[in-house]
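Page 42, continued from yesterday. The earlier attempt failed because a stray header line got pasted into the input along with the sequence. Redoing it now with the clean sequence only.
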Amino acid sequence: LDHRSLRERIFLLLTLLALLLVGWQQFFLAPHMAARKETISEIGRVSNEIVQLHAEETIVIQQATVDPDRELRRQIAQLDQAINNLNQQLAARFINLLSPQQMPMLLQQLLHEQKSLRLIKMENLPPEQMMNSLEGADAVPLGIYLHALNMELEGSYLELLKYLQTLEQLKQQVFWDILTIDIKEFPTAKIRLQIHTLSITEDWIGV
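This time it went through. C-alpha coordinates are written below.
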Protein backbone atom coordinates (compact mmCIF):
# COMPACT_ATOMS: atom_id res chain seq x y z
CA LEU A 1 0.00 0.00 0.00
CA ASP A 2 2.86 2.39 0.79
CA HIS A 3 4.16 2.09 -2.80
CA ARG A 4 0.82 3.07 -4.37
CA SER A 5 -0.18 6.55 -5.40
CA LEU A 6 -2.57 8.68 -3.33
CA ARG A 7 -5.29 8.15 -5.93
CA GLU A 8 -4.89 4.37 -5.73
CA ARG A 9 -4.96 4.46 -1.91
CA ILE A 10 -8.23 6.45 -1.94
CA PHE A 11 -9.71 4.02 -4.46
CA LEU A 12 -8.76 1.03 -2.28
CA LEU A 13 -10.22 2.65 0.84
CA LEU A 14 -13.48 3.44 -0.98
CA THR A 15 -13.63 -0.14 -2.26
CA LEU A 16 -13.13 -1.48 1.27
CA LEU A 17 -15.88 0.82 2.59
CA ALA A 18 -18.25 -0.34 -0.16
CA LEU A 19 -17.58 -3.98 0.73
CA LEU A 20 -18.25 -3.23 4.41
CA LEU A 21 -21.53 -1.53 3.53
CA VAL A 22 -22.67 -4.42 1.36
CA GLY A 23 -21.76 -6.99 4.01
CA TRP A 24 -23.43 -4.99 6.76
CA GLN A 25 -26.66 -4.62 4.79
CA GLN A 26 -26.68 -8.31 3.88
CA PHE A 27 -25.91 -9.86 7.27
CA PHE A 28 -27.01 -7.24 9.82
CA LEU A 29 -29.44 -4.65 8.46
CA ALA A 30 -31.74 -7.00 6.49
CA PRO A 31 -32.49 -9.37 9.44
CA HIS A 32 -33.06 -6.37 11.74
CA MET A 33 -35.53 -4.76 9.33
CA ALA A 34 -37.40 -8.04 8.85
CA ALA A 35 -37.70 -8.62 12.63
CA ARG A 36 -38.86 -5.05 13.21
CA LYS A 37 -41.46 -5.29 10.46
CA GLU A 38 -42.80 -8.56 11.89
CA THR A 39 -43.08 -7.14 15.44
CA ILE A 40 -44.85 -3.93 14.37
CA SER A 41 -47.15 -5.88 12.05
CA GLU A 42 -48.13 -8.29 14.84
CA ILE A 43 -48.81 -5.45 17.30
CA GLY A 44 -50.90 -3.65 14.67
CA ARG A 45 -52.85 -6.83 13.88
CA VAL A 46 -53.70 -7.55 17.52
CA SER A 47 -54.65 -3.91 18.21
CA ASN A 48 -56.85 -3.83 15.10
CA GLU A 49 -58.64 -6.99 16.22
CA ILE A 50 -59.27 -5.44 19.65
CA VAL A 51 -60.80 -2.35 18.02
CA GLN A 52 -63.05 -4.49 15.82
CA LEU A 53 -64.13 -6.66 18.77
CA HIS A 54 -65.00 -3.59 20.83
CA ALA A 55 -67.15 -2.36 17.93
CA GLU A 56 -68.90 -5.73 17.68
CA GLU A 57 -69.42 -5.80 21.45
CA THR A 58 -71.01 -2.34 21.36
CA ILE A 59 -73.49 -3.51 18.69
CA VAL A 60 -74.37 -6.66 20.65
CA ILE A 61 -74.84 -4.68 23.89
CA GLN A 62 -77.15 -2.24 22.08
CA GLN A 63 -79.18 -5.18 20.77
CA ALA A 64 -79.31 -6.72 24.25
CA THR A 65 -80.81 -3.56 25.74
CA VAL A 66 -83.61 -3.68 23.16
CA ASP A 67 -84.37 -7.41 23.37
CA PRO A 68 -82.17 -9.14 25.98
CA ASP A 69 -81.92 -12.90 25.81
CA ARG A 70 -79.49 -15.70 26.61
CA GLU A 71 -77.88 -15.79 23.12
CA LEU A 72 -76.93 -12.13 23.20
CA ARG A 73 -75.43 -12.46 26.67
CA ARG A 74 -73.46 -15.46 25.45
CA GLN A 75 -72.12 -13.43 22.50
CA ILE A 76 -71.12 -10.59 24.83
CA ALA A 77 -69.27 -13.03 27.10
CA GLN A 78 -67.44 -14.52 24.11
CA LEU A 79 -66.43 -11.08 22.87
CA ASP A 80 -65.20 -10.09 26.34
CA GLN A 81 -63.08 -13.25 26.50
CA ALA A 82 -61.65 -12.64 23.01
CA ILE A 83 -60.78 -9.04 23.91
CA ASN A 84 -59.07 -10.17 27.14
CA ASN A 85 -57.03 -12.75 25.24
CA LEU A 86 -55.90 -10.16 22.68
CA ASN A 87 -55.06 -7.67 25.45
CA GLN A 88 -52.85 -10.32 27.04
CA GLN A 89 -51.09 -10.89 23.69
CA LEU A 90 -50.57 -7.14 23.32
CA ALA A 91 -49.21 -6.82 26.88
CA ALA A 92 -46.77 -9.68 26.21
CA ARG A 93 -45.47 -7.83 23.15
CA PHE A 94 -44.89 -4.61 25.11
CA ILE A 95 -42.99 -6.43 27.87
CA ASN A 96 -40.19 -6.98 25.33
CA LEU A 97 -40.11 -3.32 24.26
CA LEU A 98 -38.05 -0.64 25.98
CA SER A 99 -40.29 2.04 27.53
CA PRO A 100 -40.03 5.62 26.17
CA GLN A 101 -39.01 6.91 29.61
CA GLN A 102 -36.08 4.49 29.88
CA MET A 103 -34.81 4.91 26.33
CA PRO A 104 -32.79 8.20 26.48
CA MET A 105 -30.91 7.26 29.67
CA LEU A 106 -30.08 3.77 28.39
CA LEU A 107 -28.84 5.06 25.02
CA GLN A 108 -26.54 7.55 26.73
CA GLN A 109 -25.31 4.89 29.15
CA LEU A 110 -24.34 2.64 26.24
CA LEU A 111 -22.44 5.55 24.69
CA HIS A 112 -20.49 6.12 27.93
CA GLU A 113 -19.48 2.47 27.86
CA GLN A 114 -18.35 2.80 24.24
CA LYS A 115 -16.18 5.90 24.45
CA SER A 116 -15.12 5.82 20.79
CA LEU A 117 -18.46 7.31 19.72
CA ARG A 118 -19.26 10.92 20.59
CA LEU A 119 -22.85 12.14 21.06
CA ILE A 120 -23.32 15.48 19.34
CA LYS A 121 -27.09 15.92 19.75
CA MET A 122 -30.17 14.03 20.94
CA GLU A 123 -33.72 15.28 20.43
CA ASN A 124 -37.15 13.75 20.87
CA LEU A 125 -39.99 13.77 18.35
CA PRO A 126 -43.72 14.13 19.10
CA PRO A 127 -45.51 10.81 19.75
CA GLU A 128 -47.26 9.44 16.69
CA GLN A 129 -50.47 7.46 17.12
CA MET A 130 -50.68 4.31 15.02
CA MET A 131 -53.82 3.78 12.95
CA ASN A 132 -55.34 0.68 11.39
CA SER A 133 -54.70 -0.06 7.73
CA LEU A 134 -57.71 1.96 6.53
CA GLU A 135 -57.32 5.51 5.23
CA GLY A 136 -59.19 8.77 5.57
CA ALA A 137 -62.40 8.85 7.60
CA ASP A 138 -62.34 5.04 7.97
CA ALA A 139 -59.00 5.03 9.81
CA VAL A 140 -59.30 4.00 13.47
CA PRO A 141 -56.71 4.76 16.21
CA LEU A 142 -55.22 1.61 17.71
CA GLY A 143 -54.33 3.16 21.07
CA ILE A 144 -50.61 2.59 20.37
CA TYR A 145 -48.03 5.38 20.11
CA LEU A 146 -44.68 5.43 18.33
CA HIS A 147 -42.04 7.34 20.32
CA ALA A 148 -38.89 8.36 18.47
CA LEU A 149 -35.75 10.36 19.09
CA ASN A 150 -32.97 11.46 16.76
CA MET A 151 -29.32 11.01 17.67
CA GLU A 152 -26.33 12.62 16.00
CA LEU A 153 -23.06 10.76 16.62
CA GLU A 154 -19.47 11.09 15.51
CA GLY A 155 -17.12 8.15 15.09
CA SER A 156 -16.10 5.45 12.64
CA TYR A 157 -18.45 3.23 10.70
CA LEU A 158 -17.19 0.13 12.55
CA GLU A 159 -17.76 1.83 15.91
CA LEU A 160 -21.32 2.63 14.84
CA LEU A 161 -21.83 -0.99 13.81
CA LYS A 162 -20.66 -2.13 17.26
CA TYR A 163 -23.10 0.30 18.92
CA LEU A 164 -26.02 -0.98 16.83
CA GLN A 165 -25.08 -4.58 17.61
CA THR A 166 -25.18 -3.68 21.32
CA LEU A 167 -28.69 -2.28 20.83
CA GLU A 168 -29.73 -5.49 19.09
CA GLN A 169 -28.54 -7.55 22.07
CA LEU A 170 -30.59 -5.65 24.65
CA LYS A 171 -33.17 -7.70 26.56
CA GLN A 172 -35.75 -4.99 25.87
CA GLN A 173 -36.14 -4.27 22.18
CA VAL A 174 -35.83 -0.94 20.39
CA PHE A 175 -35.99 -0.15 16.68
CA TRP A 176 -33.55 2.03 14.75
CA ASP A 177 -33.05 3.60 11.34
CA ILE A 178 -29.95 5.21 9.86
CA LEU A 179 -30.92 8.62 8.51
CA THR A 180 -27.57 9.81 7.14
CA ILE A 181 -23.87 8.94 7.19
CA ASP A 182 -21.55 11.83 6.35
CA ILE A 183 -17.89 10.76 6.08
CA LYS A 184 -15.84 13.81 7.06
CA GLU A 185 -12.33 12.35 6.96
CA PHE A 186 -12.05 8.58 6.58
CA PRO A 187 -12.70 6.69 8.79
CA THR A 188 -14.44 9.38 10.92
CA ALA A 189 -18.09 9.96 10.05
CA LYS A 190 -21.05 11.93 11.35
CA ILE A 191 -24.06 9.65 11.71
CA ARG A 192 -27.72 10.52 12.30
CA LEU A 193 -29.86 7.74 13.78
CA GLN A 194 -33.52 7.53 14.68
CA ILE A 195 -34.30 5.22 17.62
CA HIS A 196 -37.92 4.42 18.37
CA THR A 197 -40.15 2.25 20.49
CA LEU A 198 -43.89 1.68 21.01
CA SER A 199 -46.15 2.15 24.02
CA ILE A 200 -49.82 2.48 24.93
CA THR A 201 -49.31 5.92 26.51
CA GLU A 202 -48.79 9.29 24.85
CA ASP A 203 -46.17 10.46 27.37
CA TRP A 204 -43.22 12.16 25.69
CA ILE A 205 -39.69 10.88 25.98
CA GLY A 206 -37.74 12.95 28.48
CA VAL A 207 -34.47 14.09 26.85
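Notes: Residues 60 and 75 are 7 Å apart (CA to CA).
Reminder to self: strip header lines before submitting.
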